[in-house]
Design a protein that fits this description.
By secondary structure, the chain is an all-alpha fold. The protein contains five helices and no strands.
């Protein structure tokens, strides 16, 4: 019959030998990937030096920069820090698109742009929802319906303000002068 100490000592070496073997297997699996990454980087460095790649990047950069200058709010040029950041982001995006997502940095730039896009969409949906709550009867309507109703509602509110102002003028002017006739405007 085995003693408890002999069971413990016989079971421990088996578990200890399994762990280093797994680590060795993992290391063996990661080394070929690292060699492949180095080969890809070497090929990528050669393609970035080509004239054709330079032309592709230049055209994409010009297109991206034209969208940056056109895409302003229309009230004039944006402040210098915001404009500088927009130019840098446009240049990075153009470079990442030219790399076609073959490298980690290009995929990171492209996915971060997607995250920002979704964040902007979330902000836009929130603003649409708030506008829908402001306009009576538009709580769950789509954006085009909300915009159409909002423009009509704004015109109606402006008319209401003009009418109530005229009525207040009439009532305040009529009570101070004592006459019942309406003032001409």
């Amino acid at each position: 019959m085995a003693t408890p100490s002999s069971l413990i000592s016989s079971s421990n070496p088996v578990t200890n030998t399994d762990r280093p073997q797994r680590k060795k297997l993992r290391k063996k699996k990661t080394f070929p990937l690292a060699k492949q990454d180095h080969a890809d980087l070497a090929r990528q460095a050669q393609t970035w030096k080509s004239e054709a790649q330079q032309q592709i990047y230049s055209s994409k950069l010009l297109k991206a920069l034209s969208h940056v200058t056109i895409g302003g709010d229309g009230g004039g040029p944006p402040p210098a820090p915001r404009r500088g950041r927009a130019v840098r982001e446009a240049a990075d995006r153009a470079l990442a698109v030219t790399a076609k997502g073959r490298t980690r940095w290009s995929r990171a730039i492209l996915t971060n742009r997607l995250k920002l896009k979704f964040r902007k969409q979330k902000r836009q949906r929130k603003k649409v929802r708030v506008l829908g709550r402001l306009v009576p009867g538009c709580r769950k309507q789509p954006l085009p319906v909300i915009l159409e109703e909002a423009t009509d509602y704004i015109a109606a509110l402006e008319m209401q303000v003009r009418t109530m102002s005229a009525l207040a003028e009439l009532l305040s002017g009529g009570s101070s002068s004592g006459s019942g006739s309406a003032p001409t405007t």
